[in-house]
Amino acid sequence: MKTLLIVYHTMTGGTLQLAQAAARGARTESQVQVRLLHARQAGPDDVLAADGYLFATPENLAAMAGLMKDFFDRCYYPVLDRIQGRPYATLICAGSDGSNAARQIERIATGWRLKAAAPALIVCTHAQTPEAILAPKLIPLDDLARAEEYGAALAVGLALGVF
Asked: pTM to 2 decimals?
């Protein structure tokens, strides 16, 4: 059985909703065990034990969340040269764009020599005022459905050895 590790961080709940939807979708593939861990909980042993990855982060100040960066920093050296070629995908919950956060994860994945399984899925909440940025997010059902399909596709590809 293959293992898909989903590592996320959330501040206002939007990224968690997307990560949970992706996990639901991935769990439809019976040949894949899904582990959903907050970035604080995930470490090198979790990364080494997984066959594929889904990294989910909010965009904060045009960058990935600091706790996601902390996860990557803590895991970088212990997993370097031990996970190359494994597939990954990225979910971004953004207020306006999300592309820079996606690029940051792509650069880290390049350093780990991971293989992108799909382009980043970016969901934009259009939160632009301080009140909207800090408010709890409610991700629309169509975006949750896209995240669920994204997780399902990643799991199926992992189970079939496509990646």
From this structure: 0.97
